[in-house]
Amino acid sequence: MASSEEDTSNDGDMPPTAAAVAVGAHLLGFSDEILLHILSHVPSTDLVLNVRRTCRKLAVLCLDKSLTHTVLLQKDYEASEDKVKQLVKEIGREIQQLNMAGCYWLSGATIEHVARCRSLVKVNLSGCHLTSLRLSKMLSALQHLRSLAIDVSPGFDAGQLSGECKATLSRVRELKQTLYTPSYGVVPCCTSLEKLLLYFEILDRTREGAILSGQLMVGQSNVPHYQNLRVFYARLAPGYINQEVVRLYLAVLSDRTPENLHAFLISVPGSFAESGATKNLLDSMARNVALDALQLPKSWLNGSSLLQHMKFNNPFYFSFSRCTLSGGHLIQRVIDGAKELRSLASLNLSGCVHCLSPDSLLRKAEDDIDSGILETLVASCRNLRHLNLSAAHHHSSEGPGRHLCQLLARLRHLRSLSLPVCSVADSAPRSDRVPAMHAVPRGFGKKVRIGVQSCPNPFSGQAGPQPSSVFWSLLKNVPFLERLELIGSNFSSAMPRNEPAIRNSLPPCSRAQNVGDSEVAAIGQLAFLRHLTLAQLPSILTGSGLVSIGLQCQQLQSLSLANLGMMGKVVYMSALSDMLKHCKRLKDLRLEQPYFSANAQFFQALSQCSALQRLCLVSRSGTLQPEAVLAFMARCLHVVVCHMFTGESLATCKSLQQSLLRRCHGLCGLCGLCAPLQHPTDPPTPRDCVTVFPGRAARAERCHLPSAPRGPDQCHPGRPHGAPG
Question: Where in this chain does the record put each F-box domain (predicted)?
Answer without folding.
Answer: 32-73
